[in-house]
């Protein structure tokens, strides 16, 4: 087992309303096919004094700030004090955590954004999980389908792992910083508190507590 790639190594589960989804799960991408059904079940249990069901299978916290031009398709949950800005496009199967920011023209699909995640400027995040306080710089995206359309394989530090998934973007650990204009290729896993240089093309696993300058040049933070 690649310990560095596990749920416990990457995420603080107390920082997401989706905590129970990870019960009994080893690797975080295992929950990607289950996000939609989980939202449908959880949404029905949310307290009405805190959340309002604004459309079919869409629950939005009353304290959230959702711009009128944002589009939200269910199943979706928008957490307390979150902000969904103008022209955001949420295509379903999306959990936006407490205090998270979904920005102008950002597109989400089949994702979990932990609390205080920021994807504020022209981002695409699909089939991905972003940990507590993770931030994607302007124009950075998760690429979630291989060009040859084959199933995604995660290239771990110890061994490669077959995921059985055709669509798999990136797993970002807590407090990851992704530089502007970067592409996280299918099956990317970024360890906690790592920084990705702007305009990077990332593949495979990047260790936590490091700085990714380019492929083959990853240094430990001092």
Features of the shown structure:
222 residues, mainly beta, 11-stranded mixed beta sheet, 5-stranded mixed beta sheet, 2 helices, globular
In short:
The protein is mainly beta. It has helices spanning 7-10, 35-43, and strands spanning 51-55, 58-61, 65-66, 71-72, 76-78, 83-84, 89-90, 94-96, 101-104, 107-113, 118-121, 124-130, 135-136, 141-142, 153-155, 160-162, 170-172, 177-178, 183-184, 188-190, 195-196, 201-202, 205-206, 210-214, 217-220.
Strand content: 35-45%
Counting helices, strands and paired strands, the structural category is mainly beta
Order of helices and strands: HHEEEEEEEEEEEEEEEEEEEEEEEEE
Tell me the distance between the termini.
28 Å
The pLDDT mean sits at 96
Explain what this protein looks like in three dimensions:
This protein has 222 residues and is mainly β. It is 6% helix and 36% strand. It has helices at 7-10, 35-43; strands at 51-55, 58-61, 65-66, 71-72, 76-78, 83-84, 89-90, 94-96, 101-104, 107-113, 118-121, 124-130, 135-136, 141-142, 153-155, 160-162, 170-172, 177-178, 183-184, 188-190, 195-196, 201-202, 205-206, 210-214, 217-220. A hairpin with a 2-residue loop joins strand 24 (210-214) and strand 25 (217-220). It is globular, with a radius of gyration of 16 Å. The model has no long low-confidence stretch (mean pLDDT 96).
List the helices and strands and how they pair.
Blueprint: H1 7-10, H2 35-43, E1 51-55, E2 58-61, E3 65-66, E4 71-72, E5 76-78, E6 83-84, E7 89-90, E8 94-96, E9 101-104, E10 107-113, E11 118-121, E12 124-130, E13 135-136, E14 141-142, E15 153-155, E16 160-162, E17 170-172, E18 177-178, E19 183-184, E20 188-190, E21 195-196, E22 201-202, E23 205-206, E24 210-214, E25 217-220
Parallel strand pairs: 2-5, 3-6, 4-7, 5-8, 6-9, 7-10, 8-10, 9-11, 10-12, 12-17, 13-18, 14-19, 17-20, 18-21, 19-22, 20-23, 21-24
Antiparallel strand pairs: 1-2, 15-16, 24-25
């Amino acid at each position: 087992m690649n310990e560095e790639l596990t749920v416990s190594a990457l995420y603080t589960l107390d920082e997401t309303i989706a905590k129970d989804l990870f019960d009994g799960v080893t690797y975080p991408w295992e929950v990607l096919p289950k996000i939609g059904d989980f939202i449908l079940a959880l949404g029905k249990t949310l307290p009405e004094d805190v959340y309002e069901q604004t459309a079919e299978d869409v629950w939005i916290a009353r304290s959230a700030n959702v711009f009128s031009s944002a589009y939200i398709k269910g199943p979706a949950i928008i957490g307390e004090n979150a902000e969904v800005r103008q022209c955001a496009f949420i295509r379903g199967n999306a959990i936006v955590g407490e205090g998270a920011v979904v920005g102008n023209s950002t597109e989400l699909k089949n994702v979990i954004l932990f609390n205080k995640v920021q994807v504020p400027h022209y981002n695409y995040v699909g089939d991905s999980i972003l940990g507590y306080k993770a931030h994607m710089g302007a124009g950075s995206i998760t690429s979630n389908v291989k060009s040859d359309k084959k199933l995604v394989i995660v290239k771990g530090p110890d061994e490669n792992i077959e995921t059985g998934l055709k669509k798999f973007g990136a797993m970002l650990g807590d407090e990851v910083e992704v530089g502007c204009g970067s592409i996280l290729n299918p099956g990317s896993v970024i360890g906690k508190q790592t920084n990705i240089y702007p305009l990077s093309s990332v593949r495979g696993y990047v260790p936590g507590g490091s700085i990714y300058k380019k492929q083959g040049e990853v240094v430990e933070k001092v």
